[in-house]
């Protein structure tokens, strides 16, 4: 399993990376000078300017060690580019995200200290980092040192893009939320609030039976949609297509129970529900709960619309100690569905004309894949003769919520 997350806007990010004229593997002295300054600033023996591509990472400049192009599984900078903030790790071996990392674990070079800033193009896309590394732990650098490191990172970008550096105020940009997001948020909030209130009123006055259950499911779905809209407004950037995670501690079974509690009609109007497997493990998670619930709801809806009669949710720990969440139905995947196409960018499981009323694939699966990859996980659909399973795998470190808060 991979050891790094994938940005939600990865395709757009890569297009921006490949379009920078100065971003070639040939080096010039200015970048070596910036790395030397970084090494002295952080009191580290190693510093480099990394470029993170789709499957690999390479270096515009490296001082203090010989490094060649390497797979992203060996990259710390793949984590750094996930936000616009510096990533400081005083001791990599004590951070749950990196304790099993091939550069940290026994048998590797024994990296311990990492301090890096993301390198942000004028388009807003992040392509790599400027960082210092050491084989022994360090105290976190001072605020002043981080500010200087950030300015050095801006100098790297300016040299690549051929423009003079601009060392702007590092305070919060209150104009970051675009007019588009603000307007769309307002237009969504008002009808959703009315819808949520109306459903609550109907639920309170409804008698028991099917109507009560359906209204309860509708209320939960409306509340989740309201929370999701707020999350998107707060944690997205319409100018770059980026979506950031709002990570928090939660319980896996609570997420599964919320999803299984939905009773929804399929395409034929028949009510269907799901259950949580009695052997499902209850473990703590450190995830964006809203985004994981969105993924689970999409998978459940696909199973309801395209799957069999019986739908089961289960949480498990796989043989590699990673978290495995599955939604399984007893339907058979239609042979016309191009399963491999699910994993291609912007593809929704093959030709939409081949969509069947059975089988478990639907339009929500590419979005689910991107949300799972944003968490550093993997997603696949497993088709057997007597069932179809949609499986989310998350890295083991996401169980260590207490250490990651």
TrEMBL record:
A molecular function GO annotation: kinase activity
Transferase among keywords: yes
UniProt EC number: 2.7.13.3
Query: Which InterPro entries does this UniProt record tie to the protein?
Result: GAF, GAF-like_dom_sf, HATPase_C_sf, HATPase_dom, His_kinase_dom, HisK_dim/P_dom, HisK_dim/P_sf, Sig_transdc_His_kin-like_C
* Superkingdom of source: Bacteria
Which parts of the sequence belong to the Histidine kinase domain? 183-398
* Protein keywords: Kinase, Phosphoprotein, Transferase
**Which reaction equations make up its catalytic activity?**
ATP + protein L-histidine = ADP + protein N-phospho-L-histidine
SMART domains with a match to the protein in the record: HATPase_c, HisKA
Does the keyword Electron transport feature in the UniProt annotation? no
Listed Pfam families: GAF, HATPase_c, HisKA
Matching entries from PANTHER family are given as: GAF DOMAIN-CONTAINING PROTEIN, SLR1143 PROTEIN
What is this protein identified as? histidine kinase
> Which organism does this record belong to?
Sulfitobacter pacificus
Q: Tell me the classification of the organism that encodes this protein.
A: Bacteria, Pseudomonadati, Pseudomonadota, Alphaproteobacteria, Rhodobacterales
């Amino acid at each position: 399993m991979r050891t790094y997350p994938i940005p939600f806007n990865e395709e757009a990010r890569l297009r921006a990376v490949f379009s920078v004229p100065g971003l070639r593997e040939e080096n010039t002295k200015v970048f070596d000078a910036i790395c030397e300054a970084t090494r002295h600033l952080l009191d580290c023996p190693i510093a480099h300017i990394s470029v993170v591509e789709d499957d690999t990472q390479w270096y515009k400049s490296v001082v203090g060690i010989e490094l060649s192009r390497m797979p992203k599984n060996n990259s710390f900078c793949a984590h750094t580019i996930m936000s616009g903030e510096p990533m400081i790790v005083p001791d990599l071996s004590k951070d749950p995200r990196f304790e099993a990392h091939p550069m940290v674990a026994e048998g590797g070079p024994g990296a311990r200290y990492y301090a890096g800033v993301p390198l942000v193009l004028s388009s807003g896309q992040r392509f790599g980092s400027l960082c210092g590394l050491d084989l022994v732990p360090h105290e976190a650098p001072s605020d002043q040192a981080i500010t200087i490191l950030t300015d050095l990172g801006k100098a790297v970008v300016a040299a690549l893009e051929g423009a003079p550096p601009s060392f702007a105020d590092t305070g919060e940009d209150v104009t970051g939320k675009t007019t588009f997001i603000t307007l769309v948020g307002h237009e969504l909030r008002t009808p959703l609030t009315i819808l949520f209130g109306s459903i609550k009123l109907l639920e309170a006055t409804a008698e028991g039976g099917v109507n009560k259950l359906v209204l309860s499911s509708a209320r939960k779905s409306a509340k989740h949609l309201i929370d999701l809209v707020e999350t998107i407004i707060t944690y997205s950037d319409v100018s770059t297509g980026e979506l950031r995670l709002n990570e928090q501690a939660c319980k896996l079974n609570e997420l599964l129970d919320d999803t299984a509690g939905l009773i929804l009609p399929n395409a034929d109007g028949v009510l269907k529900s799901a259950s949580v497997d009695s052997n499902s493990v209850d473990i703590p998670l450190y995830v964006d709960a809203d985004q994981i619930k969105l993924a689970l709801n999409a998978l459940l809806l696909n199973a309801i619309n395209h799957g069999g009669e019986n739908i089961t949710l289960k949480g498990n720990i796989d043989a590699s100690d990673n978290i495995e969440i599955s939604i399984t139905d007893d339907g058979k995947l239609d042979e016309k569905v191009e399963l491999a196409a699910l994993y291609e960018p912007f593809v929704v499981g093959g030709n939409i004309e081949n969509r069947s009323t059975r089988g478990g694939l639907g339009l929500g699966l590419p979005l689910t894949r991107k949300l799972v990859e944003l968490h550093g996980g993997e997603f696949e659909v497993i088709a057997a003769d007597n069932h179809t399973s949609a499986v989310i795998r998350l890295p083991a470190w996401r169980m260590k919520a207490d250490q990651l808060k």
